[in-house]
Design goal:
Structural class: mainly alpha
Number of helices: 6
Low-confidence stretches: none
Distance between the termini: 25 Å
Strand content: under 5%
Shape: flat
Largest sheet: 2 strands, antiparallel
Mean pLDDT: 88
Radius of gyration: 30 Å
Number of strands: 2
């Protein structure tokens, strides 16, 4: 059994290791942001140029539809161009109105045309007692004492925790 001094020393060691990891991750994040800032103006310019070139190509195809009767599409420089039948799109403003009208006009197909989804609400169920949950056939797990090792710090620390968790999972899988 470890002494409290041993636990304190191990906790300090862990905190120091996390701090070094957080500093390295923060350094990486800073470099990524600097690279993004460096390349973003050029990328925005290239997006604008590509968008304009696409608009010009679309206008040329629309003005020359007779070139795309047979075949309706061709591949040029790795880009498929031409004409194709639109797939169409359906949309509605109010789900409740559409459901009501389906039930009125197509009641025999309502099961197929209307999706009904019933599902327990975990957050609400968590407010029930263990006895009440048992009545519902819900098992309550991990209610005993558990080891807690939980930092109380920032967003960057959450990334560090994620990295540590991934490493722990890799270690468990290897075992």
């Amino acid at each position: 059994m470890a002494t409290m001094e041993k636990i304190e020393k191990l906790t300090r060691n862990y905190a120091d290791a996390r701090e070094r990891l957080a500093e390295t991750v923060q350094s990486l994040e800073d470099k990524i942001e600097a690279i993004k800032r460096q390349y973003l103006p050029g990328i925005k310019i290239q997006v604008g140029i590509a968008s304009q070139e696409k608009a010009d190509l679309k206008a040329a195809i629309e003005d020359s539809k007779e070139l795309f009767v047979k075949p309706r599409t061709v591949i040029i420089s790795g880009i498929k161009v031409g004409l194709e039948k639109g797939k169409g799109k359906i949309d509605w403003d109010d789900n409740d109105t559409v459901v009501r009208l389906i039930e009125k006009h197509f009641s025999d197909q309502a099961e197929v045309l209307i999706q009904t989804k019933k599902k327990p609400v975990k957050k609400a169920l968590a407010n029930l007692s263990a006895a009440e949950l048992k009545k519902l056939g819900i098992q309550v797990e991990d209610t005993g004492d558990q080891v807690v090792i939980k930092p109380t710090d920032s967003q960057i620390e959450k990334l560090v925790d994620k990295l540590l968790k991934e490493k722990d999972e890799e270690t468990e899988e290897a075992a």
